[in-house]
Structure to design on (801 residues):
């Protein structure tokens, strides 16, 4: 029982990170109907920014500011940086293609992904870096009940990801930009006719989507995974899987899909096979896609000629 | 008189028009050529050249060159490049059927190549101790990959566009993950674990092809085999493309719904495209494994996938000549870039061409070149006066071009740091350049040119692999924005 509980907690933490990535895919898809394949690499850039902010503030061993402030700054700078990167990517790789064929943005996104990965390789070399979290956050932090331990970092990541998701939901439902975004997702032509500044809303969408990926990147670093230029591929695919399982374009769907995927992956690792957990995850996606092509919470798309 | 003038003219022009058209010809059809979108001036040149050379001449010359290459070249390295090109052409052909003709976005295509390679490796190496005859193995691989292609095609009946891309992408990832994980399987009925694919270590010691007792020990044997295969495939695919199957494929690509209502068997044809593409990729994989005598799963992952896509799209998806051209660019160019002498000259040529294209007139072009030279001297004088330490010339000069540049270029001691700075600044400047006014553009251009040369000499020349990838990425984005139909493809209007 405690083992199951522990796996569930780990899965939820992981799922929170996946959900943040998935939300980025889903936001962009909802507004522009393009698959932003460079999203996983934005996540990688976020992790790098977090790392260099940490080093800039004195490194893991003797930070010049309190640890809590350092982590806060890491998140803020990473989210701001990746958000701006998202705007730049949209401006140069997607905006010229807005009225192009369906395949063009997809290929362009592949190009951006290659560019980002190799720019990171050129700038930061192929070394795998680590946030070295355990040296400044004690592993005894956190609490346990009924044999389930949840350490401080995991708790923090879980809480922050849920907070970000709530923030996003508030943003989408409560602000003017969020409302405009939903209007564009519903019918772009009609939205233009209502006087909505589509360019501005799309910029915001990319900013928010990339900032969430940046936050996910820093979380990934805090959870003690390596930071390297190729790290974006698999989490990018997983986040993407989560978005699709939940129904791409649907925000609650992305959250549900992310958490579900995290739990399934960690249960598969715990009970079936560590080696095959990724295979199981991807197989699950294919099955969901075949049974419910629009995902769990997605709306049924009508094919228009 | 003047009142009658106008109708007469119209009559006359109508008469000549009719004479041009001939009796029974539709005007719309007759004007078809004129309505095809062509770019004016130098931008339309590739298309114009492409259209003015007859197909047989093009293919004939290509065949002659490849024949001569196989017959007279003795250099093993060059032959290997040739073999790689052949494999690349096969892969592009296969993808061209799936994506170019039928319009199915198959992002797991490279997995079929990997399955072909691993299939051959498993059936003819010590890995699980089988050494079957080449005939049998190749036959099994072709049928096996075709069957898998059939299975992967099943989702395409329910899923459209992006969703199909997703499922196939995961098919590709499942292949990679399965191969990686299958080195340590414990079956419930067995005690010890079984090693099937050797995981990330790859499978070495694969038997070469052997037909009629002749072992393919020389790389030239593979070259001839591939040449024959590619020639056969070219003929076969171009002929199929002209039959009703080919026409139906293209109809599905343009509008599956309309095709279906016209009585085209959409599902069956989609399956057919998948199966053909998969079988071609599987065969190419088997040849690759036999030629290389070792397979590693990392070679069948996303990077290769992007390369094949880049090749097909660069040449123009839906065009066989385009697929060949794309394959040449994607597989030979990297080899050329590997030789620093060539890559330097190539880089300068590209830079000059870009300046010429952006500057548009001889005057502006000269100003840009002089501007770059001036900036270079200015930087050298200023930084020389500040006496910052430089890298000794002999450490960074790699060829005649950089030797010539060494009198002009200022190379700081910490090349990595300065190169990285230049890289970041360059990207920011290029981004700014595309959005700014013409006046600022003309000032920025020499600066960008100088930074480009600086970055190239300081950082990129020594790091060919990254450079190549950076160039491919940039090329994909730029190509999609400027010419989404590729070099030899025809522009088409997508009905949404």
């Amino acid at each position: 029982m405690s083992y199951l509980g522990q796996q569930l907690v780990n899965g939820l933490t992981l799922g929170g990170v996946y959900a943040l990535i998935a939300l980025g895919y889903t936001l962009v898809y909802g507004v522009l109907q393009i698959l932003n394949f460079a999203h996983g690499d934005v996540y990688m850039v976020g992790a790098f920014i977090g790392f260099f902010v940490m080093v800039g503030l004195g490194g893991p061993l003797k930070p010049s500011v309190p640890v809590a402030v350092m982590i806060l700054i890491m998140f803020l700078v990473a989210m701001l940086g990746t958000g701006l990167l998202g705007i730049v990517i949209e401006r140069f790789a997607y905006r010229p293609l807005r009225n192009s064929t369906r395949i063009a943005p997809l290929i362009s996104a592949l190009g951006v992904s290659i560019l980002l990965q190799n720019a990171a390789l050129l700038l930061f070399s192929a070394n795998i870096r680590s946030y070295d979290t355990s040296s400044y956050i004690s592993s005894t932090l956190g609490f346990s009940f009924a044999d389930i331990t949840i350490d401080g970092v995991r708790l923090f990541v879980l809480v922050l990801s849920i907070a970000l998701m709530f923030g996003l939901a508030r943003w989408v439902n409560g602000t003017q930009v969020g409302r405009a975004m939903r209007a564009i997702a519903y019918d772009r032509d009609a939205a233009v006719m209502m006087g909505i500044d589509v360019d501005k809303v799309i910029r915001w969408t990319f900013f928010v989507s990339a900032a969430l990926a940046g936050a996910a990147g820093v979380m990934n670093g805090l959870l003690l995974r390596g930071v390297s230029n190729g790290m974006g591929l698999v989490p990018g695919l997983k986040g993407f899987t989560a978005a699709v399982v939940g129904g791409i374009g649907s925000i609650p769907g992305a959250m549900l899909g992310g958490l579900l995927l995290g739990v399934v992956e960690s249960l598969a690792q715990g009970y079936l096979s560590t080696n095959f957990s990724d295979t199981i995850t991807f197989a699950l996606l294919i099955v969901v896609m075949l049974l419910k092509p629009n995902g769990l919470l997605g709306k049924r798309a009508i094919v228009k000629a | 008189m003047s009142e009658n003038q106008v109708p007469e003219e119209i009559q006359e022009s109508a008469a000549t028009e009719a004479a041009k058209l001939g009796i029974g010809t539709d005007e719309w059809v007759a004007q078809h050529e004129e309505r095809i979108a062509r770019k004016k001036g130098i931008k339309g040149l590739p298309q114009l050249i492409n259209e003015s050379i007859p197909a047989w001449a093009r293919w004939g010359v290509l065949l002659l060159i490849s024949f001569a290459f196989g017959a007279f070249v003795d250099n093993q390295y060059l032959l290997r490049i040739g073999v790689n090109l052949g494999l690349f052409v096969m892969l592009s052909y296969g993808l061209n059927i799936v994506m170019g003709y039928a319009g199915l976005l198959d992002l797991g295509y490279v997995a079929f190549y990997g399955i072909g390679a691993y299939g051959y490796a498993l059936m003819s190496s010590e890995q699980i101790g089988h050494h079957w005859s080449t005939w049998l193995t190749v036959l099994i691989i072709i049928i096996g990959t075709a069957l898998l292609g059939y299975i992967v095609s099943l989702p395409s009946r329910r899923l459209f566009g992006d969703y199909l891309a997703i499922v196939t992408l995961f098919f590709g990832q499942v292949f990679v993950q399965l191969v990686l994980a299958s080195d340590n399987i414990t079956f419930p009925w067995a005690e010890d674990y079984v090693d099937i694919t050797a995981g990330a270590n790859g499978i070495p010691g694969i038997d070469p092809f052997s037909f009629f007792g002749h072992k393919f020990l020389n790389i030239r044997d593979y070259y001839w085999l591939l040449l024959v295969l590619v020639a056969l495939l070219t003929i076969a695919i171009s002929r199929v493309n002209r039959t009703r199957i080919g026409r139906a494929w293209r109809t599905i690509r343009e509008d599956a719904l309309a095709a279906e209502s016209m009585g085209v068997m959409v599902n069956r044809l989609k399956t057919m495209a998948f199966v053909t593409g998969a079988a071609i990729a599987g065969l190419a994989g088997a040849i690759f494994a036999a030629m290389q005598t070792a397979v590693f799963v990392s070679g069948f992952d996303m990077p290769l996938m992007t390369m094949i896509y880049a090749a097909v799209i660069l040449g123009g998806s839906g065009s066989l000549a385009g697929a060949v051209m794309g394959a040449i660019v994607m597989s030979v160019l990297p080899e050329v870039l590997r030789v620093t002498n060539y890559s330097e000259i190539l880089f300068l040529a590209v830079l000059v061409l870009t300046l010429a294209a952006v500057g548009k007139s001889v005057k502006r072009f000269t100003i840009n070149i002089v501007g770059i030279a001036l900036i270079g001297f200015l930087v050298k004088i200023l930084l020389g006066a500040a006496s910052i330490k430089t890298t000794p010339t002999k450490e960074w000069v790699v060829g005649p071009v950089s030797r010539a540049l060494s009198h002009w270029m200022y190379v700081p001691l910490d090349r990595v740091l300065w190169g990285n700075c230049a890289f970041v600044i360059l990207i920011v400047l290029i981004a700014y350049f595309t959005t700014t006014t013409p006046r600022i553009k003309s000032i920025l251009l020499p600066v960008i040119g100088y930074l480009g040369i600086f970055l190239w000499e300081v950082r990129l020349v020594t790091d060919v692999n990254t450079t190549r990838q950076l160039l491919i990425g940039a090329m994909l984005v730029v190509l999609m924005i400027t010419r989404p139909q590729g070099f030899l493809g025809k522009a088409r209007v997508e009905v949404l």
In short: Residues 2-229 of chain A form one domain. Chain A has a mean pLDDT of 84. Chain A touches chain B through 50 residues (CB under 8 Å).
